[in-house]
Amino acid sequence: MKNWKSIVYLVCAIQVGAGISMVGVMSFLPLFLSELGLTDPGEAAFWAGLITGVTPFMIALSAPFWSIQADRRGPKVVMTIVLSAVTLSSLASGFSTAPWQILIFRTLQGLVGGFVPIGLSIVATVTPEHKTSWAMGYFQAAMVMGIMFGPLLGGSIADTFDYRTPFFFFAFLAFLCLLSVQFFLPPIHRKGASKDRSSTFSQILYFMKIPRVRIMTFMQFLCNFGITGIGPILPLYLKQMIGTSSDLVATIVGFIIFISGGCSAFMSLNVGRLTERIRPHRLLIGATIFVGFTFFMQYHMHTVESLGFWRAITGMGMGLIAPCTNTIIAKSVPPETRSIVFGVVSSIFLMGNVAGPVCSGALARWLGYPSVFWSTAIAFWLAAFVILWNFRKE
């Protein structure tokens, strides 16, 4: 495909907008829940974890189905459905008057499937084999940029106006992404795409029997567990650290996430150069151990500045993990079947997005906020051990 780079850039740009719309609530959701009547910090953290986790949980359940539909009907159709749901659910969330209403809207948002596996399959399909690491790095950078700008914009808008206004902004942004898909994304055709349901599901079972696919999927589950686990407690932890007198907690949270994401995006953009010198699985092991160490250091921090510094350092390691795992997965399966395998992989590793917020909210409620940091460090070290053990056996 001659214009493959243009398609990669377009999909990455849409991923940034979709990511902002999906994760922008992280910086102010616990504070918004407090405004809705949850005055106990532990209860607010628990509900924030539940609401944050329900969307990836529903995406995980529905991702294989939507990946199959993308394989049959084309990714453009599925992306239109996903972005339409994000637009409507974000708009409806702005009118919520109780936590359970936000929970319902976020559940519906996740039920129609996620953008990430479809975007990954497009990038993997149109990109030449020798440029896979480069393209995966750019897509990961786009994902990180959504995580960067989402909380920063959400927190800034919430502090400037109120906690409802960001939802309307996210709905508008998702609608712009929807228009971009309709007018600028060409139809993506895959050679040898699956046409019958039985062959598709037999391929799913086959993919999960591939050792490297299975290992990388397990790695991403644990990795996402650690990445998303900090989300529900960070605003409340910083509020406790700063003091209740500050009116800029959401903005500070957004800024810390922004800096961390910037470091992560920088490393993702350069992962292609690194994999030319270091084998992807070795780079992955080193990055995972490093990230575990940085979370352990965050456990010992007691000021906003020091915590923000180590969050930024954490981002550097994070920026290497996903591109390496996706590169290994993409090179382990035939090009014409990557849409299905990324849907299956996404379904499993998104469960980490579910377990992370829910477990961190429960840990914060029972053991205090710092417990989330050391438990996250253990998760990353466990992931590094699993990868090291399995690649040694090969």
Automatic annotation (TrEMBL):
InterPro entries, per database record: MFS, MFS_dom, MFS_trans_sf, Tet-R_TetA/multi-R_MdtG-like
Membrane topology: Multi-pass membrane protein
Gene Ontology CC annotation, any one: plasma membrane
Stretches that traverse the bilayer: 7-32, 44-65, 77-97, 103-126, 138-161, 167-185, 218-238, 250-271, 283-301, 307-329, 341-366, 372-391
Xref: Pfam families: MFS_1 (PF07690)
Main location: membrane
Keyword Ion transport carried by entry: no
Keywords, in A-Z order: Cell membrane, Membrane, Transmembrane, Transmembrane helix, Transport
Presence of keyword Membrane: yes
Subcellular localization(s) per the UniProt record: Cell membrane
Domain Major facilitator superfamily (MFS) profile: 5-394
Molecular functions per Gene Ontology: transmembrane transporter activity
Name of the protein: Major facilitator superfamily (MFS) profile domain-containing protein
Species this protein is from: Dialister succinatiphilus YIT 11850
Origin organism lineage: Bacteria, Bacillati, Bacillota, Negativicutes, Veillonellales
